[in-house]
Design brief:
The protein is mainly alpha-helical and about 280 residues long. It is built from 12 helices and no strands. The chain has one domain. Helix 2 packs antiparallel against helix 3, helix 4 runs antiparallel to helix 9 and helix 8 runs antiparallel to helix 9.
């Protein structure tokens, strides 16, 4: 019965995403805007389901499509903020994690990741305003490839708060400068230090919502955003997709998809790097 209900809801949300994409095309006469709705839907479903992939895949795809990194990164941040906020509510609903129990370990880990992640984000935005788009794109390409390789290797270590501090700073830095790289570092890092997949995904999704909000506000204050349409259409799709992902986590399918995700991440990273080097 649960699987049938899950399937019906997923189909309904998918139909809504296609409907919104079609409506977007009718009103804007822009195929790219319609595709942004679909992209946001797919990315949010994956991201809230396995705790990674929204920016790590979304940023390279948009850069390869020709969008500017200084518009892409804020768009990824704000649209994923909506996805992560809804996803966090759903993860708590399905008891994948409980970050609202302030006395529990889940909440302590989430708050630690938020605090140190924001510190990394502040450094990243400061650098982003001073580096050319080509250098940022090259960093993104190398970063994404490295993340994919680390996930494939599946290294394991014992838990320590120091490791969590380091993971959080790196994740926050990656997220703010590239729009991606937080989920793989956070979810992958939590898995390697002994956390269960459900908790790793739930904690990552909750913490990333706050970090994305701070990152987007920093870009907004800096005045570097010149195109808000990307943010709008990605967000429409992301809101719908974020209701599906946590259901996937509940069924514990997340761990089975990590290898395929890692391979896709590596391919996207290589394409982004080649694009930044003007090889393709």
């Amino acid at each position: 019965m649960y699987i049938g209900r899950f399937s019906h809801i997923s189909v309904l949300l998918s139909v809504l995403a296609v409907a919104f994409a079609g409506t977007t095309y009718l009103y804007t006469s822009s195929l790219s805007n319609s595709l942004l709705v679909i992209l946001g839907f797919i990315l949010a479903t994956i991201d809230t389901g396995i705790g990674m992939g929204y920016g790590t895949m979304g940023t390279p795809i948009l850069l390869i499509a020709g969008f500017s990194s200084k518009n892409v990164v804020p768009a990824i941040l704000i649209s994923q903020l909506f996805a992560a906020s809804i996803g966090s509510i759903q993860h708590r609903r399905y008891k994948n994690t409980n970050v609202l129990d302030l006395k529990g370990k889940d909440a302590k880990m989430a708050l630690t990741m938020i605090a140190f992640g924001i510190a990394g984000a502040l450094i990243a935005v400061w650098l982003a305003m001073r580096l050319s788009g080509e250098y940022i794109n090259m960093y993104i390409g190398l970063l994404v490839v490295s993340i994919g390789i680390v996930i494939l290797l599946k290294k394991r270590a014992t838990f320590s708060w120091t490791k969590l501090y380091i993971l959080s700073i790196i994740g926050g830095f990656n997220k703010a400068i590239s729009g991606g790289g937080y989920g793989p570092v956070s979810t992958g890092g939590l898995l390697t230090i002994g956390q269960k997949i459900k908790k790793s995904v739930g904690i990552t999704i909750f913490s990333i919502a706050i970090i994305n909000l701070v990152g987007f506000l920093l870009y907004l204050i800096s005045g570097s955003i010149s195109d808000y349409a990307i943010s709008l259409y990605l967000s429409i799709g992301a809101v719908l997709g974020s209701n599906i992902g946590p259901r996937i986590t509940r069924q514990e399918k997340a761990g089975n998809n990590l290898r395929g995700m890692a391979v896709l991440i590596i391919v996207l990273g290589l394409l982004t790097l080649l694009s930044a080097l003007k090889i393709i």
